[in-house]
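Lab notebook: predicted structure, single chain.

Context: the supervisor wants predicted structures on file for every construct in the current expression panel, including those that have not yet been purified. This is the next one on the list. No modifications to the sequence; it matches the entry in the shared construct table.
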Amino acid sequence: MGRRRSDNHSPTTLNGLPQPQGSKICFEDDDDEAPVEETTESSNFDESMCDAADDSNRVIEDTACEPGQSFNDKDDKTSADYYFDSYSHFGIHEEMLKDTVRTKTYQNVIYQNKFLFKNKVVLDVGAGTGILSLFCAKAGAAHVYAVECSHMADMAKEIVETNGFSNVITVLKGKVEEIELPVAKVDIIISEWMGYFLLFENMLNTVLYARDKWLVDDGIVLPDKASLHLTAIEDADYKEDKIEFWNSVYGFDMSCIKKQALVEPLVDTVDQNQIVTNCQLLKTMDISKMAPGDASFTAPFKLVAERDDYIHALVAYFDVSFTKCHKLTGFSTGPRSRSTHWKQTVLYLEDVITICEGESITGSLNVAPNKKNPRDIDIVLKYSFNGRRSTISKTQHYKMR
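Prediction complete. Output recorded below exactly as produced.
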């Protein structure tokens, strides 16, 4: 998941000639009705590979072993172990605070809807630097309880004191599931819980736990709606450079690494000109009413081509909204919207689909927390296509970790 593009997306070449992005592609011998590609049911899921990924061969990115610690000991740790430690570093908070789509939306929601916060008790779940708590306090909240499990809680306390809000904001260091609030109930729960692919890191369940334990009957959760969407893109250059590369490395077959590369979704910004199909709503979540188990789901999809092109990957993104405001407010992390630190999540396909305008890819996406490491996500993509130029039916498994 940690991979990043090292260069900008460049136009696809067809028959050796560069094609403008978003332009209609004319396939050779379009009069030939027989499909030029045919693939039967198969899967990229390799049991031995995934077993290894689950256990001692798991790679932990950007971490080093402590003195006296073996690499295998380090590898036994997972994203669940590193989750809170990662939020102790100021860099990740800097990135989130500088994401103006994210932070300004929350600021506008709070400042432009002070009637929601005036004299209310607020719980900030996963407070980080305390920025949302500060917004709430400035908007007139009676008291704000800012819960943060990482060492950033110590910084948040100092930030609160420095800005003169110690009498309004109480920073509590610990896990939401383990702390006790000084009050029985709160009027508002606010949180920026969304992860990559909306659900990565599984912080949503923490918000739902807090809702069920502390929120008053007529209380509100902000944001209260989230939706996951899917589309398909052309991405030949990146797939060739980063995935097909492993087929022949200085004359040696290293395609076993290619399998692993395909299993790990890519988090990156997709150019809107790469989009080939419509965008499909997969799942809508009502945070104020949903049960924790609702974050696991299987959703059908149908993606219809808007032009003749090649499809190399499916792309997921999410929208969030605050429906309790005076005016509906929210933001999208989609490729046609202003970029956010969440970017989009790219699921590369094993095979290239050659699609014509009006043809459709159908299938389903199954999403669930990993049973061993619940902050990770397991994704199962089933898809089929029967078009003029290609036919395919396949199941691919992905792991966000």
